[in-house]
Design goal:
Blueprint: H1 20-38, E1 46-52, H2 59-67, E2 75-81, H3 87-95, E3 101-106, H4 114-126, E4 135-139, E5 143-144, H5 149-159, E6 163-167, E7 170-172, E8 175-176, E9 191-195, H6 196-201, H7 213-223, E10 227-230, E11 236-238, H8 249-262, H9 267-277, H10 285-299, H11 308-339
Parallel strand pairs: 1-2, 1-4, 2-3, 6-10, 7-11
Antiparallel strand pairs: 4-9, 5-11, 6-9, 7-8
């Protein structure tokens, strides 16, 4: 609960049945009090929400990764979004051991889209209404990480009071997210950590059927004046390949381009991005299909799914980054010519 002036007060009673989390949280509380007395940054507390739909293949290893954290969450709500594969049974097993894990079960829904995932997240967030914490995390049900992952991120929040959204890159096998075209200001939806005030300022996640929910949230945070950052000196691991369920690689590329137009992407930015992607797999075709999706959406006047204000803000950011990149290339060319 919260004490005077919104300070976090951690109860002295055990928070788990095995007593482990009680000890860890006690260390956080002691560290917070000590740091406060010294006038330095205190440790932050956090809660997690995980929407899970038929994640029996991955959810247990995610739970084990969270349970092993050096600084555990004050509460973790796992929302079973109509799962029929045994996900609920796995979560119940661990919820019986750890009081800070809670299962929320939703009825099965026919339609599968990203808006439904937002509804599941909202159900989990509602379950946190009476939980005092500084940071709210949206954690996918197929992500794992090392034991001090959240301690690392909480330290980043404690060091910068304007940091609104934080996360790390993710890996899929040997592949790591490419930040040359999204920058470290973008925070992947695989694990997005929000300062709670920031999350409330942006009104939470916007339900968008085509996806881009995480992107819109991060851009909205910057529009509200918050800083957003991916810290590349740590990674998490994504155990399911993104965006390819029941779709061909080329269809994923085409829909990605179409979706980027609907989410307010700048045409010049998209053109350069797609040219760059043509060198990757599938060679030439991947970038070409993405560009075709964007251009066809633009030429046919497909309706955007975000407000005009966000479109203007996003395009302004993308153009600024293009100018900065061009400036760096010009300086590099000048430097090479001077030394030749």
């Amino acid at each position: 609960m919260r004490g005077a002036k919104g300070a976090i007060v951690i109860e002295t009673s055990p928070t788990t049945k095995d007593g482990r989390a009680m000890s860890a949280l006690g260390e956080v509380a002691g560290s917070s009090a000590g740091n406060s007395a010294k006038g330095t940054a205190r440790c932050m507390t956090y809660a997690l929400v995980t929407p899970a739909r038929n994640e029996a293949a991955f959810i247990e290893q995610v739970i084990k990764a969270v349970v092993a954290q050096t600084v555990p969450p004050v509460k973790w709500v796992i929302v079973s979004d109509g799962s029929t594969d045994g996900t609920d049974d796995i979560v119940r097993e661990y919820a019986a051991k750890y009081d800070w894990i809670e299962l929320v079960s939703l009825p099965e829904r026919r339609e599968r889209n990203f808006a439904g995932k937002v509804m599941a997240f909202r159900a989990g967030y509602a379950a946190l209404a009476e939980t005092a914490c500084d940071v709210i995390g949206n954690l996918d049900a197929d992500i794992t990480f090392d034991a001090n992952y959240f301690e690392f991120l909480m330290k980043k929040f404690s060091e910068n009071e304007r940091l609104g959204v934080a996360g790390t890159p993710f890996r899929e096998g040997e592949m790591q997210y490419d930040y040359r075209f999204s920058s470290v200001e973008h925070v992947s939806g695989a694990c997005q950590m929000f300062r709670r005030q920031c999350f409330e300022d942006i009104g939470g996640y916007t339900p968008i059927k085509i996806g881009g929910v995480d992107l819109v949230a991060v851009i909205s945070a910057r529009m509200k004046g918050w800083q957003t950052r991916t810290f590349v000196d740590k990674t998490c691991f994504h155990h399911r390949k993104m965006g390819t369920a029941n779709k061909s690689v080329l269809m994923v590329a085409y829909k990605g381009g179409r979706g980027d137009y609907m989410l307010g992407g700048d045409p010049l930015w998209e053109f350069i991005r797609c040219i760059y992607q043509m060198k990757g797999h599938p060679f030439i075709l991947g970038g070409s299909f993405r560009l075709a999706g964007f251009m066809w959406a633009m030429l046919t006047g497909v309706e955007k799914v975000v407000p005009d204000e966000l479109v203007r803000f996003r395009r302004s950011e993308q153009r600024s980054r293009l100018r900065a990149f061009t400036g760096r290339m010009m300086r590099l060319k000048l430097s090479i010519s001077e030394t030749a």
